[in-house]
Design a protein that fits this description.
By secondary structure, the protein is mainly beta. It has a single domain, classed as Calycin beta-barrel core domain (Lipocalin, Beta Barrel), CATH 2.40.128. It is about 10% helix and about 55% strand. A ten-stranded antiparallel β-barrel has the order 1-2-3-4-5-6-7-8-9-10. A hairpin with a 2-residue loop joins strand 9 and strand 10. It is globular.
Length: about 190
């Protein structure tokens, strides 16, 4: 008995676009990033000076580029106003391996919905904008101290929830490439 081969066996298959390329094209057209102004009018309104005044704490997870959890981070923050438009906050960060870092923040309102900050482990100045329940800023963490080759950029989006907690999502990049992300929830300390 003779078995017939399909007509394409032994010849090149007809060209087809790779499936992943098709998926990328479709997903790329599905969404566009939101801008901070898209949150205008949402409530509760997030004022970083108000939120960080007093005692707050957080619990979060550091994730690698693929989104896999790699570390737990907790913070304890104590903030006090230095006038109507300036805040001084001391933040203690504790990593899951026991490493403790103290960050000394100086945050100031520079205009309506505009803020800037400096910190002891920051290169330069952070600039941020609030709108409705959201706050966004970018800043450079001097992760290697004075060695600029080890600096990374922190892109942070913060969202105030109706129950008073705040969700913080940080994307950490180096030379424009995402190297890690942090998902964190802040709340008032008892």
């Amino acid at each position: 008995m003779r078995v017939e081969k399909p007509g394409w066996v032994g010849r090149a298959a007809p060209p087809r676009p790779p499936v992943f390329m098709l998926v990328l094209v479709l997903l790329g057209g599905c969404s566009k990033p939101m801008h901070i102004r898209d949150f205008a009018g949402t409530s509760p309104a997030f004022d970083p000076l108000v939120f960080w005044t007093g005692h707050t704490h957080s619990w979060g997870v550091v994730e690698d580029r693929a989104g896999a959890p790699t570390e737990i981070v907790q913070t304890d923050c104590q903030g006090s106003l230095d006038g109507p438009n300036d805040l001084h906050m001391v933040q203690t960060l504790t990593e899951s391996d026991g490493t403790i870092t103290h960050r000394d923040w100086h945050l100031r309102r520079t205009g309506p919905h505009q803020f800037e900050a400096t910190a002891n482990d920051m290169a330069g100045t952070a600039h941020g904008t609030s709108a409705g329940r959201a706050f966004h800023w970018d800043w450079v963490w001097a992760a290697g101290g004075t060695n600029p080759l080890k600096h990374v950029t922190m892109h942070q989006w913060m969202y105030l929830m109706p129950n008073g907690t705040m969700l913080n999502h940080t994307v950490i990049t180096k030379l424009g490439i995402t190297v890690a992300q942090v998902s964190e929830q802040f709340s008032r300390a008892p």
